[in-house]
Specification:
Blueprint lengths: L7 H11 L4 E7 L2 E6 H17 L7 E5 L4 H12 L3 E5 L6 H11 L1 E6 L2 H10 L8 E4 L13 E3 H14 L3 H8 L5 E6 L9 E5 H14 L7 E3 L7 H14 L2 E4 L6 H8 L3 E4 L1 H17 L2 H22 L6 H22 L6 E4 L6 H9 L4 E7 L4 E5 L12 E2 L4 E4 L4 E5 L6 E2 L3 H7 E2 L2 E10 L6 E6 L4 E2 L5 E2 L1 H8 L5 E7 L6 E7 L1 H10 L7 H5 L2 H14 L9 E6 L19 H7 L1 H7 L10 E2 L2
Parallel strand pairs: 1-11, 3-4, 3-5, 5-6, 6-7, 10-11, 12-13, 13-14, 26-27
Antiparallel strand pairs: 1-2, 8-9, 9-19, 14-15, 15-16, 17-18, 18-21, 20-21, 21-22, 23-24, 25-26, 27-28
Helix pairs in contact: 1-2, 1-3, 1-9, 2-3, 2-6, 8-9, 12-13, 12-14
């Protein structure tokens, strides 16, 4: 059901008026959790908005923010929208000056809100190529206070300016809100950019509110719920939950002290909801698997006995098959002595709504969490669909599907196998790119570029892979490389994997080891190393990875098993264009950058690359 207010700032204002003292945010600083109420959230957004107006911000101006997960990012979004301006998030890790500059320049940004000195330096380095830029607002200004630059201004100073404007011109903020319309552009959001420079998607208030309302109709959240902000703020997945869904229902968004304390803080909070990309769930599995490897004999034995029991029971349940009484009793025992402990270890004890999206999560990973009692569910959408369009209903979870369209939305597969989405959540279009917009949204249907099918028995949508990434062996067998890659990444020692086989006789892979876990394994086995390259090329590491690959290929049909692999000599990096900031492979870049090593996988001749052939 759609709310009465028809813009995001109006929803925030309504929430702050009706529940002023409820907790909007929990932020940890210096080891202490700080509560920020809805009235505080609105006040900070209001004063930032008025302060930017005082500095020259105008309606329809673009405001770029570059930040990690913290409340100030949401003040920036709400503040910009309240002034009729349009916020755009950029990833803090962006180092590729050319792409970084192109996107900011393409957006016509007049204001940039930077988190710290590192982000400020990036902007100063490209300022000459940003002719419309007026101000750089810095959150952590103490790091740049020695800079003699009139364009820089502290975040806190802008808030003070806004407070003075409000005193001189009371009601200005509320009048600005009254001029906003549901069809106005609310935000710009970058696409993943797996094959080219990301596009800027224009999403309206109506788009975003319809998405948040629809997901809440399926999975109601309340002010009693807590969610940890885990994903990059620039990503539409994080904005969909934090920026849109939070104010709509009043649940509390929690911010860890820093990236190193995330899991410890997660345990302290014990959230009832979580949304993470596949990498986040893979990391949790790695934590458990590595912990079990280091455990004593008794704990390790319990894990090896009861995890297979849990897996078997879950597989039967998800397949709608009968579970024997003995298996139920054994699972109940496993719950008491193992699964409850594992959930607590990860901070998932209070979990009710657990989601994965933004990429391909393997069935092995999916079943792993269900076995330990976490009812993980797939969601599917994309930037052009305001983040979320399809989810697995809580009472109809099927591991090989992404579920059904949210209430009021539509999903289908055309005759070519491409997934199409429809509804009020579909974008206005691409910013300054009408031609691509017209090619992407046709007769109200968003052409996602994803390849899939609809399960004829259940009506559930099955997403197989990006249409352009589907591969065909010389035998004619069609396969999804992502499906094999996720099998490989179930291993705690494999961080990334890229599979090949299109127009070839067999499937091969380049694999990136997990530096932390493999490094720890090497130390335990008294294997010396210096750098990532040194570690990855050790014969003992190749042998260990070989065993992991063979284990991962156990349940894959023979024709699609990886027959050869080689190890990357470096970690894949977004700044080298090899993966996106949300950890999706950029296959075109990898195919070009690693062509000699890929060719070695299909050569019988001796090469400079170490290649392992599997039995």
């Amino acid at each position: 059901m759609l709310p009465e207010s028809n813009t995001l700032p109006a929803i925030l204002s309504q929430r702050a008026q009706s529940h002023p003292n409820d907790t909007a945010f929990l932020r940890k600083e210096f080891g202490v959790w700080e509560k920020i109420s809805w009235s505080n959230y609105l006040e900070n957004s209001k004063f930032l908005s008025l302060g930017m107006i005082e500095l020259g911000l105008k309606k329809d101006d673009k405001v770029v923010f570059i930040s990690t997960n913290r409340p100030e990012w949401l003040y920036a979004e709400m503040g910009a929208m309240s002034a009729g301006a349009v916020p755009l998030g950029m990833y803090p890790e962006s180092e590729g000056v050319e792409d970084f500059q192109k996107l900011i320049a393409w957006s016509d940004a007049t204001f940039i809100i930077a988190e710290d000195q590192e982000q400020t330096d990036k902007i100063i380095a490209i300022r000459s190529r940003l002719p419309k830029l007026c101000r750089i607002i810095v959150m952590e200004f103490h790091e740049v206070r020695r800079y003699d630059d009139p364009m820089l201004i502290p975040f806190t100073e802008v808030l003070k300016m806004g407070k003075k404007v409000n005193q001189k011109n009371p009601g200005l903020f509320e009048r600005n809100l009254a001029t906003l319309k549901s069809e106005n552009i609310a935000i710009l959001s970058t696409t993943s950019g797996t094959s080219a420079l990301p596009k800027l998607v224009m999403l309206s208030h109506k788009n975003l509110i319809s998405m948040a309302s629809a997901i809440n109709d399926r999975d109601p959240m309340t002010a009693k719920d807590k969610m940890l902000s885990l994903n990059p703020p620039a990503w539409i997945g994080e904005r969909a939950f934090s920026l849109c869904w939070g104010p709509l229902t009043g649940f509390c968004m929690c911010f860890a002290e820093n990236s190193e304390t995330t899991f410890a803080d997660f345990r302290e909070i014990g959230p009832s909801a979580i949304f993470s990309g596949p990498r986040g769930w893979d990391d949790m599995i790695s934590k458990i698997l590595v912990r079990m490897e280091d455990a004593g004999f008794f704990k390790k034995r319990i894990y090896k006995i009861f995890m297979p029991i849990g897996t078997k029971v879950v597989e039967l349940k998800l397949a709608r098959k009968k579970v024997s009484l003995v298996s139920q009793l054994l699972y109940g025992l496993g719950e008491m002595i193992l699964f409850r402990y594992l959930r607590n270890l990860l901070g998932l004890s209070n979990m009710r709504n657990a989601y994965t999206g933004g990429g391909f999560l393997g069935i092995d990973q999916f079943i792993f969490f269900h076995a330990m009692g976490v009812k993980l569910r797939q969601i599917y959408g994309g930037t052009e669909a305001s983040g979320v369009a399809v989810t697995q209903p809580p009472d109809d979870i099927r591991p090989n599907t992404v579920g059904t369209a949210l209430p009021g939305m539509r999903a289908k597969v055309d005759e070519t196998g491409e997934i199409l989405l429809g509804g009020d959540n579909i974008m206005i279009g691409y910013y300054k790119n009408q031609k691509t917009t017209d090619e992407t949204v046709i007769d109200g249907w968003l052409h996602t570029g994803d390849f899939g099918e609809v399960d004829p028995k259940t009506g559930n949508l099955v997403m197989l892979d990006r249409k352009k990434d589907i591969m065909i062996l010389n035998s004619g067998t069609v396969f999804s490389p992502q499906a094999i890659e996720t099998k490989l990444k179930f291993s705690p020692y494999i961080r990334e994997a890229a599979c090949f086989g299109d127009k070839k006789d067999s499937v091969t892979s380049l694999i990136q080891i997990d530096m932390d876990n493999v490094g720890k394994w090497a130390e335990q086995n008294h294997i010396p190393y210096t750098t990532f390259k040194d570690l990855s090329q050790r014969p003992e590491i190749y042998e260990m990875v070989r065993k992991e690959v063979e284990k991962a290929m156990h349940n894959i049909q023979d024709e699609l098993k990886v027959v050869k692999f080689s190890l990357f000599e470096k970690e894949l990096d977004p700044e080298d264009g090899e993966i996106t900031h949300t950890r999706k492979l950029r296959r075109i870049v990898i195919n070009e950058a690693y062509k000699p090593q890929i060719d070695a996988l299909y050569s019988d001749q001796k090469t400079n690359f170490k290649v392992i052939t599997l039995n």
